[in-house]
Design a protein that fits this description.
Elements lengths: L1 H85 L6 H7 L2 H4 L24 E2 L3 E2 L2 H14 L12 H13 L4
Antiparallel strand pairs: 1-2
Bound molecules: heme C.
């Protein structure tokens, strides 16, 4: 019986050894796989970041070169487009926006000293669906708002500015020509 015990013990021993050796790789595999799976992102991500960074840098450089190359003609096209849209000349607007006090209440890219905080920034104005939250953003409505915001909305904090219709058209042209944000 001790023999059968030994055999019985031997069989389980082998069985233990076999599954043991069988288990060792199978247990090792998931661990390795897990190790690879866990290590890979950590190892890959700086590379991915570097590759992506290089790509982004390339796009930025390419974009810059293109922008410089096409800058003059694009600016001309944009000026013609906003002039057709509003009947104004955006080149006259910065000085007018200083004269009519817009610059004191608004941040307006390209207008010296226009860092006002009373009203919203006018950067990316072309993207806004509404003017002062009450008017659809169209060229006609913008010209009207720039002159007579308080007449349009008696509760707005923006006063009627006294801008002439010509100045308001120039200003509208300028605001539509600002880069979208
Ligand atoms: C006394 C401060 C003040 C002055 C001066 C002023 N604004 Fe405003 N403006 C505001 C305020 C406040 C608002 C927000 C109005 C609202 O939502 O009712 C506003 C809103 C606007 C808007 C709409 C912005 C949006 O995103 O809805 C435009 C465009 C605008 N102003 C342009 C001008 C121009 C151009 C001038 C000069 C001709 C000017 N403002 C002068 C205070 C001012």
């Amino acid at each position: 019986m001790p023999g059968s015990d030994e055999r019985a013990g031997g069989v389980p021993e082998r069985a233990r050894t076999d599954p043991g050796t069988a288990l060792a790789p199978s247990a090792g595999a998931p661990i390795e796989a897990r190790a690879i799976g866990g290590a890979a992102p950590a190892r890959r991500s700086p590379l991915v970041r570097r590759v992506l960074g290089g790509f982004v840098a390339l796009v930025v450089v390419a974009g810059g070169v293109t922008a410089v190359a096409e800058g003059a003609s694009r600016a001309g096209q944009r000026r013609a487009f906003v002039a057709a849209l509003t009947g104004g000349d955006p080149a006259r607007a910065p000085e007018e926006m200083i004269r009519y006090g817009c610059a004191g209440c608004h941040r307006i890219p390209g207008v010296p000293g226009a860092r006002g905080r009373v009203g919203p920034s006018l950067a990316g104005f072309v993207n806004r669906p509404f003017i002062g939250g009450v008017l659809e953003n169209t060229p006609e409505n913008l010209v009207a708002w720039v002159r007579e915001s308080r007449t349009i909305d008696s509760r707005t904090a923006m006063p009627n500015t006294g801008a002439t219709i010509e100045a308001a058209r120039d200003i509208a042209a300028y605001l539509y020509a600002l880069r979208p944000d």
